[in-house]
Amino acid sequence: MEFKQVKIVEKPWGREIWLVVEKEYAGKILEIKKGARTSLQYHKKKKESIYVHEGELKIIHPEGETIVKKGQSITLKPGDRHRLVAMEDLILIEISTPELEDVVRLEDDYGRA
């Protein structure tokens, strides 16, 4: 058995709590403040499944918008353009492939490249 310290990554929209990053998978908790939104982005390799633990999530994508409510989940595949919007304070659980730095930002409210 191996114990690891979680990593907390502060973001302009809230924070990420990196629970585990292994060769095969990663797990994070995302806390997004009501009214905040992530970058419009996509991933080249990363595939992620997001579970809404608390709150209501709006995902903006090329086909329109999708609402994901508490207790529901959604999977985003490599190449899926998306932006997460917190309709109320959100707690999300994300399980993904391990490429956590694989982010191609297309638009960003916070001036990040």
Task: Please describe what this structure looks like.
The protein has no helices and 11 strands. The chain has a single domain, classed as Jelly Rolls. The protein has 113 residues and is an all-beta fold. The strands form 3 sheets. The protein has a 6-stranded antiparallel beta sheet, with no helix packed on it. A 3-stranded antiparallel beta sheet has the order 7-6-9, with no helix packed on it. The radius of gyration is 13 Å and the shape is globular. The protein has strands at residues 7-11, 14-21, 26-32, 40-42, 48-54, 56-61, 64-69, 73-76, 83-86, 90-96, 104-107.
Topology readout:
Blueprint: E1 7-11, E2 14-21, E3 26-32, E4 40-42, E5 48-54, E6 56-61, E7 64-69, E8 73-76, E9 83-86, E10 90-96, E11 104-107
Antiparallel strand pairs: 1-2, 2-3, 3-10, 4-11, 5-8, 5-10, 6-7, 6-9
Helix content: under 10%
CATH superfamily: Jelly Rolls
The strand count comes to 11
Runs with pLDDT <50, length 5+?
none
Rough outline: globular
What fraction strand? Answer: over 45%
Q: Tell me the number of helical segments per DSSP (H or I, 4 or more residues long).
A: 0
Strand order of the largest sheet: 1-2-3-10-5-8
Distance between the termini: 39 Å
Series of secondary-structure elements, N-terminal to C-terminal: EEEEEEEEEEE
The secondary-structure class comes to mainly beta
Count of separate structural domains: 1
Mean pLDDT: 96
Rg, Cα atoms, Å: 13 Å
The CATH topology name reads Jelly Rolls
Query: Given this structure, which CATH class is correct?
Result: Mainly Beta
CATH architecture: Sandwich
Largest sheet: 6 strands, antiparallel
